[in-house]
Every structure is written in structure tokens, then in C-alpha cells.
Amino acid sequence: MTVEVRDLEGRPVIIGAGIAGLMTALELAPEPVVLLTAGALGGEASSALAQGGLAASLGEDDSPELHRADTLAAGDGLCDERMVRRIVEAAPGAIDKLARLGVAFDRSEDGKLRLGLEAAHCRRRIVHAAGDATGRELVRALAAAVRQTSSITVLEGVEARRLLVEDGFIVGVLAAGATGDVVMQTGRVVLTTGGIGGLFRDSTNPLGCFGQGLALAARAGAELADLEFVQFHPTALDTPRRPMRLISEAVRGEGALLIDETGRRFLADMPGAELATRDAVARGVYRHLARGHRAFLDARACLGSAFAKRFPAIATFCQEAGIDPATDPIPVRPAAHYHMGGVVVDGEGRSSVPGLWACGEVASTGLHGANRLASNSLTEAVVTAGWVATSIAATPARPVTAKGVAAVPVRPDPSLAQTFVSSAMGVLRDGESLRDAAAALLPLAMGNSAGADPAAVALMMTVSALRREESRGAHCRTDFPAQSAIASRSRLNLDEAVEAAAEFEPLPITAPRARSGAQRTL
To answer: In what order do the strands lie in the sheet with 491-492?
Structure first.
């Protein structure tokens, strides 16, 4: 049965209720908007899991120019410098805005914001809330503000399955809910769906985050960028639990060291050591594990008994795993954490499809380049939400009619695509594994099964990784270890990915081909 939500027709529809979605809805007030969330409000978003904070140049020894320089250095030649400058200059104002919305940031006894240090930042500029539970506090405060804003209609338990397009323009959203299918007719849609971590076996993201927004955008004909760049957090808690718990970079910022089972500090000789960029630390940890060692984060000397006070959430889930960070080294390994790629957007968040905007991790603004600087992502989501809202408010609603609506696709299941992504798109990559994965993903992506949308996203990521024949930032090709002299961003649409993958020999879709030297897990 198809249910038409007639009373909501023509309103902007925001798909996703993490920090980017919540902020966009609030910034649009008092214009009436609809906020779709597959679960409870704020309950399934990656945002709520964020332990890090928001990067902003608030210290007396800091400046937007220093923040810009650190961001560009981490991005390894692929940042959009104009966008970097705009966002870092707007970052301090974003902190003030969040405080006015009720976010309880951590402060010192004199009332000043407490600023933390994370890897590749030259100054203490990370603003936290509730210690190591910043994301949870932001979602709490913003969700409460959304609940109190009468112009925002929240539809919980409603999952967008397709964007409806007529003559190249967005005309609606096809969604599924507990009471039936829903057709929402609108010419203004915002994707705020988060990342792709659920495509990996080892991930800190919610298992359902397989790149829904990328699939929606790609099937609507949108252009995507930099899909090969996946950031692996070097210190996820190494237990059987999935998604993996994150041991925040802020722990290393407080002086924790990476050691192996012998007690040796195995990254001591690497430039920056434990506080090098995330891609470098992740590769260092991964390679040490591949040699048969284990990896631990040791906070005993720098924090000891103060660990639980400084990082209460981390201490709690470590203790649940039988680990006391005050007396025990914490077992860690790299895990997929953040996607630098996404839907290509301009400075106002507009995609290449008229009527479609994107904000947050699902968008590719050019801020992160080849490797996200720690804690820039929450800042980006808050800042760009305001720009997206301004753009949407300035775009008049136009009469739309969704004609010939097809059946709602089945609920996506990323488990099959996960096999190939985990094998070929990990910390270290090679062309043969990527070609095998692309060939196997193609028929799955072109089918109508529950694995089709996750496979389509995985296919585009894999083709993008194949095309980048160099190692840069978070993308490391063992068969192309050098960096190209010319830095260029990658762009791709679904049709191009399908055409490229069709050149490769099809493989059975039950499992990727095994070979010596190929990465099997993260």
C-alpha cells in the first residue's frame, strides 16, 4: 500500500537525523520541513558515537590560519583551499551557536572552554562535551531543540529508498515505514545520511551505515567525488564486538603510547609518532599486526587512575571488556571510521542534480582532501548546515508531481558487499584485489536484491580506488606506492563505474579470490 503524506507535500525533506540533519532542520526554522529517520530520533546516527570534539581556533595562541594550515597538511594536496578557509573561519561561531542551543561543553573552573589536543593539530583546539561523549551530548541537545521546534515534522521509523527524478529534477522521495510505503512529493531534498563504515567488517560506525545517501544520490544521477578515501581509525578496541568501540585520539593527545606485546613502542621512530596523521598511524599499526604482533594503547603512565575521570565512556566499555585502562594496556587495531568522499556539492551544499543538497559526511565539500584532520567533521557538519539551510530557503518550492512511481526497493543488506570491501578496500590495497572486487560487485549492484544498493556504493568506491594509481593520504596502493606529482580529485557517477567494471572478468559473488599478500581483513 502506498501512503501519500499530502499535508507535507512541497516541504523540504531532510533524510537522516545525525548532527548534520538536526542542524539543517533547526537552521531552516521557521520554514516547515520534514526530517526522516530510519530509527528513533538521533538513535542510529554515527554522530552519537563521536568521542572526539569539534575543532575550532579558540585558544589565545591559535588562529584560523593555523587551523587552515593543519587541515591542508592532513589533506595531502586534495583539499579545496577556499572551502577550508571558509569553514575554519566559521568554526568559532559554530561553537557559540551550539552552546546557545543547549550543548553543555566542557569548561575549566573559570568558565572557559577546555581545549584538547589531537593528532596533526599544532595547537589545543578540540572542544569536547561530556568528556569523551561529545557526539552523544550534541545529539541530545539538538534532538531536544528539534522536538521543541514546531516547524519541524519528524517521521521516525521511515527509511528513504529512492529519490524520484523527473526531467533531471528532484520531485520526491520514495520511502518505507512501519505502516506502509510513503511517497513524499517535494522539489527540495537534503541528504544527511552519514558514512559507509557498515561496508567493512571492522568499523566504528553503526552496522547499518553502508552509504545509503550515496546510493540514493548515485541512482538519481548525481556526481560523487573522492570515494576511494576511507579513513581508518588506528585505535579501535580490539574485541569481537561490532561495531567496534573507539579509543579516541584524544587519549593519545594526553600522552598515551602505542606498544606491542613485548612493551616496545613500535612507532617511536615515525615522524610525529603516535600523533602523526591518522593514515600514517593506521598503516603503522596495521603493518605491525601483519607481522604477527599485537598492538596496545598504553595510558598507564600519562593518565593512570585519572583515566576514568578524563574518559568516562571509554573507561566504561573497556571495563565491560575486562580491561582497566588505569592498569592494563588497551588492545587496539585499525577500523573503518570516516569517509572523505561523498556527493559533490558546491559552497551551498547543492549537488549536480537540481533540488538535491547534501551535508555532513555524505557530502564532499573539499574540506578533508585525502585525509580528514581529526575533529574537523563535526565542525563541518554544523557550519555547512547553515549554508545549506540558507540555500534551500532561497530556493522557492516549485509544483512537482511524481509520476509512475515504481515499487519500493527491498530493505538493503550490506553483508555480501562487505566481504569484498573488507578484502580489497582496506588499509593497504592493490590493483588485482580491486579488479576482482569490482568484477564481483557489478552483477550484484545491477540486480534487484537487498545487496544491490550497498554493492553499488562499493562498486563506485572500488573503481575510484583502481583509477587512483598512486598512494596519497588514506589511499595506499602497494602496487603504486609513490605519490603522483599532480594532485587531483576524483569524480565518478554510477554509469561510469558500471562501464569501467564491465571490463573485468566476472567472479563468483560468494567470496573474493584469495592470494598471498592481499589484505584479508582490516
So the answer is: 363-364, 342-344, 224-225, 491-492
pTM for this structure? 0.92
Burial 355-392 (b: 16+ CB within 10 A, else e): bbbbbbbbbbbbbbbbbbbbbbbbbbbbbbbbbbbebb
* CA–CA separation, 113 and 126 (whole Å): 10
Among the listed residues 278, 333, 350, 472, the single catalytic one is: 278
Per-residue 3-state assignment (H helix, E strand, C coil) for 496-510? HHHHHHCCCCCCCCC
The CATH code belonging to domain 2-194+340-393 is: 3.50.50.60
Query: What is the pLDDT at residue 508?
Result: 54
* pLDDT attached to residue 249: 84
How many helices (H) and strands (E) the chain has is answered by: 14, 20
CATH number of 409-522, picked from 3.90.1150.200, 1.20.58.100, 1.10.10.10, 2.60.120.10:
1.20.58.100
> Hey, what's the cell of 110?
573559570
CA–CA separation, 47 and 146 (whole Å): 16
Instruction: Identify the pLDDT of residue 496.
Output: 97
Q: Output helix, strand, coil percentages for the chain, rounded to the nearest 5.
A: 35, 20, 45
Q: What is the 3-state secondary structure (H, E, C) of 402-425?
A: CCCCCCCCCCCCCHHHHHHHHHHC
The residues, any chain, with a CB within 8 Å of residue 241's CB and separated by 6 or more, are 321
> Confidence band (pLDDT; 50, 70, 90) for 504?
confident
Q: Which fold has domain 237-334?
A: Flavocytochrome C3; Chain A, domain 1 (3.90.700)
d(CA 384, CA 375) in angstroms, rounded, equals 15
Q: Can 219 be counted among the known catalytic residues? A: no
Is 98 strand, coil or helix?
Answer: helix
* List of E strands, 241-391: 257-259, 296-298, 330-339, 342-344, 356-358, 363-364
CA distance 420 to 460: 13
**Cα separation of the two ends of the chain:** 43
pLDDT per position as a tens digit, 268-281 = 999 999 988 888 99
**Residues 14, 24: contact at Cβ < 8 Å?**
yes
